[in-house]
Amino acid sequence: MPQYTAPLNDMQFVLHEWLHLCDHYQVLGLQDFDQELVNEILTQGAKFAEETIAPLNREGDEQGAKLINGNVVTPDGFAVAYKEYIANGWNAMLGTADYEGQDLPNTMAVPIHEMLDSANVSWRLTGMLNESAILAVTKHASESLKQTYLAKLICGEWAGTMCLTEPQAGTDLSLLSTKALPNNDGSYNITGSKIFISS
């Protein structure tokens, strides 16, 4: 079976020798981010990617996800790995501390995400879309929506998804027809229909 080995030496070289990331963190007031902490985060991320996520590639390819009695059933091991991902705090890396996130800089999360993407991109899609949802809600949502969604997204109880395509369009964006027209009260009239495409 193919194995994944994270390129830790390359990542550490880029972060420490080329980007001088820890110096940058100090300028930003992130005194806790020294080279030792960065290396430990990278090491633990590599261990999780290599030992837990990469071995699930075969099951993902052979079994795929299935819809059984109205429930999506993921390949063997995917759900257990997701629970471990949540328990170890990987999902909360980029979440705001106001909602139990870790407030890690994105530059610290990028190498971890790269390792997970390389180890098993089909498993990784759930976390990837969740991070995007967390970012969108954090940056653009009202306080009411933040209160409703952020804590559950950051802790991993809920997961984000994408609803970009439409039944008649597939990946042909020229066929999209949904419109959102603003109303005077700040709400929108939406016409058309979206379908879930990932996660």
Walk me through the structure:
This protein is mainly alpha-helical and 199 residues long. It folds into 2 domains: 8-161, Orthogonal Bundle (Butyryl-Coa Dehydrogenase, subunit A, domain 1), CATH 1.10.540.10; 163-199, no CATH class. 51% of the residues lie in helices and 7% in strands. It has 8 helices and 4 strands. It has helices at residues 8-18, 21-27, 35-53, 57-63, 78-87, 106-119, 121-140, 143-155, and strands spanning 66-68, 71-73, 179-182, 188-191. The protein has a two-stranded antiparallel ribbon. A hairpin with a 2-residue loop joins strand 1 (66-68) and strand 2 (71-73). Helix 3 (35-53) packs parallel to helix 6 (106-119) and helix 6 packs antiparallel against helix 7 (121-140). The longest helix is centred in the middle third of the chain and has 20 residues, at 121-140. The chain is globular and about 50 Å long.
- Low-pLDDT runs of 5+ residues are none
Q: How does CATH name the architecture of the largest domain? A: Orthogonal Bundle
Number of domains: 2
CATH superfamily name of the largest domain? Answer: Acyl-CoA dehydrogenase/oxidase, N-terminal domain
Quote the CATH topology of the largest domain. Answer: Butyryl-Coa Dehydrogenase, subunit A, domain 1
Biggest sheet: strands, sense, closure?
2 strands, antiparallel
Net shape: globular
The helical percent reads 40-55%
